[in-house]
Amino acid sequence: MKIKVDNDLCIGCGACQAICPDVFEFDDEGMMQATDNDIDNENKDDVIDAIEGCPVSAIKEIDDEGMTQATDNDINKENKDDVIDDK
Ligand code: SF4
Fold first, then answer.
1. How many whole angstroms from 54 Cα to the centroid of ligand 1?
2. Strands 59-62 and 68-69
3. How many H helices and E strands in the chain?
4. Interval 30-86: pLDDT, tens
5. Is the pLDDT of residue 6 over 90?
6. 22 backbone dihedrals φ, ψ, rounded to 5°
7. Is the CB of 51 under 6 A from ligand 1?
8. Residue 83: what pLDDT?
9. Atom number in ligand 1 closest to CA 15
């Protein structure tokens, strides 16, 4: 699992760092960074919680080419229309 923080979206609330301080920290410029982009199994559940808990969906799962991946492939009825609208 690979991730990145989209600092164009991030509002700096710190929630991800509170959930998973092993992976998320503010850099010297006050921007949230994923200190480890290649998440091991030890931190995976916490990182998923951070992704789901980010209020602005700024934490993205990426593939090997750096492309954003859907973190939830089991799209529920509530989100279905938004997913379709995004295509
Ligand atoms: S939870 Fe989201 S908005 Fe808050 S600091 Fe982390 S990446 Fe930024």
1. 5
2. antiparallel
3. 3, 5
4. 999 998 777 888 999 999 999 999 999 999 998 877 777 665 555 555 655 665 665
5. yes
6. -65, -25
7. no
8. 59
9. 1
Domains and CATH numbers, the chain: 2-85 (3.30.70.20)
CA-nearest residue, atom 2 of ligand 1: 54
Tokens standing for residue 4: 């990145």
How many other CB atoms sit within 10 Å of the CB of residue 19?
Answer: 19
Q: Is the dihedral of CA 87, 81, 15, 38 positive or negative?
A: negative
Q: How many whole angstroms from 8 Cα to the centroid of ligand 1?
A: 11
Residue 20's Cβ-side half-sphere holds a number of Cα atoms within 13 Å equal to 26
pTM over 0.85? The answer is no
- What tokens does 83 get? 């997913």
pLDDT surpassing 70 at residue 87 = no
- Distance (angstroms) between ligand 1 centre and the Cα of 16 equals 6
Q: 75 CA distance to ligand 1 centroid (A)?
A: 23
